[in-house]
């Protein structure tokens, strides 16, 4: 394909045009990231008066720390749970809305709204709904014979944060799934119907395989979301408790750094997180370039 | 193998629009029937109603000996070839062909045998391990046909299967479809807007207009005796010339007295306008040659009738005897006239 080439006169105009983007990246990404890298190699004394170079001691200490290893597995459970819940719920909604004709736009608009809500607000909302003393869900569960208390039960707490984090993301996934479904030609579905496949079989043998590029993209986006953007949800609901049960990596970075004031360890944790997000991004680009399936 | 019988079939959409306004048709076992008409005439809707992809608002549909109005597409024992082929892009050609058989619980060995046989028949054996995107338009078309015939259904339904191919390939596939149908003798219903495709493929044509049947007949019957002005101008290329009867009467030809009183317009095929006087009773008309169009084996002369604004087309071979702008005299045999009534649109005799 031929692309049009623009040539700018002078030496400075191209730099001037690039400058805003470069400055934003430098100030808000490169500088803090390099600070984190630097900090992760230092250890501050108890009064915060001086810091000394300790090499990789912060990292090796982390991997000996039972709390940190616990946080890794908690994060894995949380990320997988949130991703599965938000994607399957979104796919179900998208498949349902896609069958509608006239009311499709109305439902789409309504279903997208939760995405506009800040994670902290979403957290507060679900904290309220699931509040063991005044919430509606524990009240209903109690009638069914289950005593919900996410303040004492780690499982309940994990369920709560997964639901709260997934709910917000459903809107986003829904939009992508709906667009994916709409790009599947109707005649394929009709051909499959004539070929003797019922609605469920059609979905799993034709529709779902054709959605794989969308599904894979969303999988990566959702895992990244669950691991990095859910600080607000945790902070508004469980604050990592009870007993570290919902203390995911990104929340631990905050808690250790700004509550525990262990800057070196916190920086080391954020460097590890950064490595994880880079790895996920690499995987995503690899796969998207191959277009996954067909 | 089965006959298809349509009785008073109607399709009304939720908005009250009636796309199909009562169709009665019987397709005999093994017959190749082509539904032809302009876009929006309801031909595709009708085919989709037979396939079970559109619900039937009114009427009865029989395939074989049973009424299938309320059966799912899969239960009607039909196979359909779509305009865009509708191949499953994530499956190999083999899996595309095998999908319908797998869904019906055929044994693996039987699937293998049938797919190989269909592939051999359509000469796509080499493509079986490929994905559809690795195939050309013509090859995809063959795969789509293969998917229909592995199932050995009671009837084939074709929805404009050739319209995505280029002109040369279209002619080639047209011949192949015809040969294949002759060989398999499977009842076929074929939808097209291309009158040439319709004429060459069909044992019988059904000309549709505005959701109704205009005429049913063999291609030659329809060509020789179009039942309405619509059919007359739709079938045949270039289209039939329509000339007011009064104009021809004024030319002083006493030949037209025996036409029914309701006749007010006369159709004449472009091939029936001759530049030499034929034997037998005929009309003589003068015109001005406006444009000469050479198309190889044949040429088209666009003329305007003398003393009138009426344009007409003459189909002939070779060069016209006069230059553009000069007067051209032509002759029409009395038998070549198709008398119509303009108001009803129907043939008068």
From TrEMBL, chain A:
Tell where it localizes. Cell inner membrane; Cell membrane
Key words of the record = Cell inner membrane, Cell membrane, Membrane, Transmembrane, Transmembrane helix, Transport
Query: What does the record say about its membrane topology?
Result: Multi-pass membrane protein
Spans traversing the lipid bilayer: 12-31, 67-94, 106-129, 157-181, 202-228, 267-288
Where the protein is mainly located, per its record? membrane
Which Pfam families has this protein been placed in? BPD_transp_1
The cross-references to PROSITE patterns, in alphabetical order and at most eight, read: ABC_TM1
Signal peptide range equals none
Q: Does Transport count among this protein's keywords?
A: yes
The chain positions of domain ABC transmembrane type-1 read 68-284
| Subunit field text | The complex is composed of two ATP-binding proteins (UgpC), two transmembrane proteins (UgpA and UgpE) and a solute-binding protein (UgpB).
Sequence similarity: Belongs to the binding-protein-dependent transport system permease family. UgpAE subfamily.
This chain belongs to the protein called: sn-glycerol-3-phosphate transport system permease protein UgpA
TrEMBL record, chain B:
Q: Does the keyword Membrane apply?
A: yes
The answer to whether keyword Transport applies is: yes
PROSITE patterns noted in UniProt: ABC_TRANSPORTER_1 (PS00211), ABC_TRANSPORTER_2 (PS50893)
Superkingdom of the source?
Bacteria
Q: Which UniProt keywords apply?
A: ATP-binding, Cell inner membrane, Cell membrane, Membrane, Nucleotide-binding, Sugar transport, Translocase, Transport
What CDD domains does its record include?
A: ABC_MalK_N (cd03301)
Q: Where is the ABC transporter domain positioned along the sequence?
A: 4-235
**Coiled-coil intervals:** none
Q: What GO annotations for molecular function exist for this entry?
A: ATP binding
- Protein name listed in UniProt: Sn-glycerol-3-phosphate import ATP-binding protein UgpC
Organism expressing this protein natively? Billgrantia desiderata
């Amino acid at each position: 394909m031929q692309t049009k080439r623009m040539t700018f006169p002078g030496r400075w105009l191209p730099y001037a045009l690039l400058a805003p983007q470069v400055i934003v990246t430098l100030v808000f990404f490169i500088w803090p990231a390099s600070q984190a890298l630097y900090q992760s190699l230092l250890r501050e004394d108890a009064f915060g008066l001086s810091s000394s170079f300790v090499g990789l001691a912060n990292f090796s200490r982390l991997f000996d720390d039972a709390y940190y290893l616990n946080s890794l597995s908690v994060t894995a459970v949380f990320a997988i749970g949130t991703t599965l819940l938000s994607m399957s719920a979104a796919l179900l909604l998208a498949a349902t809305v896609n069958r509608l004709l006239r009311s499709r736009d109305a439902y789409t608009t309504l279903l997208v709204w939760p995405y506009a809500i800040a994670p902290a607000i979403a957290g507060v909302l679900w904290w309220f709904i699931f509040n063991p003393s005044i919430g509606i869900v524990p009240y209903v569960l109690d009638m069914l014979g289950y005593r919900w208390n996410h303040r004492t039960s780690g499982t309940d707490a994990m369920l709560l944060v997964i639901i709260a984090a997934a709910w917000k993301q459903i809107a986003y996934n829904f939009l992508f799934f709906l667009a994916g479904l709409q790009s599947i030609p109707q005649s394929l579905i009709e051909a499959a119907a004539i070929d003797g496949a019922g609605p469920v079989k059609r979905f799993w043998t034709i529709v779902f395989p054709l959605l794989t590029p969308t599904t894979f993209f969303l999988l990566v986006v959702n895992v990244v979301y669950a691991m990095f953007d859910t600080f607000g949800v945790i902070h508004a609901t469980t604050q990592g408790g009870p007993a570290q049960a919902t203390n995911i990596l990104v929340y631990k970075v905050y808690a250790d750094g700004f509550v525990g004031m262990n800057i070196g360890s916190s920086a080391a944790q954020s460097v590890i997180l950064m490595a994880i997000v880079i790895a996920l991004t690499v995987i995503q680009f690899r796969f998207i370039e191959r277009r996954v399936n067909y | 193998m089965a006959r298809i019988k349509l009785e008073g079939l109607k399709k009304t959409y939720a908005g009250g629009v009636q796309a199909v306004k009562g169709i009665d048709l019987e397709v005999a076992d093994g017959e190749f029937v082509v539904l032809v008409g302009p876009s929006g005439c309801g031909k595709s809707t009708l085919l989709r109603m037979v396939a079970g992809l559109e619900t039937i608002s009114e009427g009865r549909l029989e395939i074989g000996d049973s009424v299938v109005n309320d059966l799912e597409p899969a239960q009607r024992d039909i196979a359909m070839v779509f305009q865009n082929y509708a191949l499953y892009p994530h499956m190999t050609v083999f899996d595309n062909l095998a999908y319908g058989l797998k869904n019906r619980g055929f044994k693996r060995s039987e699937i293998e045998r049938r797919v190989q046989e269909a592939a051999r028949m359509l000469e796509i054996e080499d493509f079986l391990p490929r994905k559809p995107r690795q195939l050309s338009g013509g090859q995809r078309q063959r795969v789509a046909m293969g998917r229909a015939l592995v199932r050995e259904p009671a009837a084939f339904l074709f929805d404009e299967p050739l319209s995505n191919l280029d002109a040369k390939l279209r002619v080639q596939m047209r011949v192949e479809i015809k040969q294949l149908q002759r060989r398999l003798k499977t009842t076929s219903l074929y939808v097209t807007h291309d009158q040439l495709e319709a004429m060459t493929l069909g044992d019988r044509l059904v000309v549709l207009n505005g959701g109704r049947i205009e005429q049913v007949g063999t291609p030659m019957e329809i060509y020789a005796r179009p039942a309405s002005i619509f059919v007359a101008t739709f079938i045949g290329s270039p289209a039939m010339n329509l000339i007011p009867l009064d104009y021809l009467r004024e030319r002083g030809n006493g030949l037209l007295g025996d036409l029914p009183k309701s006749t007010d317009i006369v159709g004449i095929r472009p091939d029936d306008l001759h530049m030499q006087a034929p034997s037998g009773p005929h009309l003589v008309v003068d015109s001005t040659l406006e444009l000469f169009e050479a198309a190889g084996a044949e040429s088209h002369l666009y003329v305007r009738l003398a003393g009138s604004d009426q344009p007409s087309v003459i189909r002939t071979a070779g060069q016209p005897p006069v230059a553009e702008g000069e007067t051209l005299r032509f002759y029409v045999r009395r038998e070549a006239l198709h008398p119509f009534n303009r108001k009803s649109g129907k043939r008068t005799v």
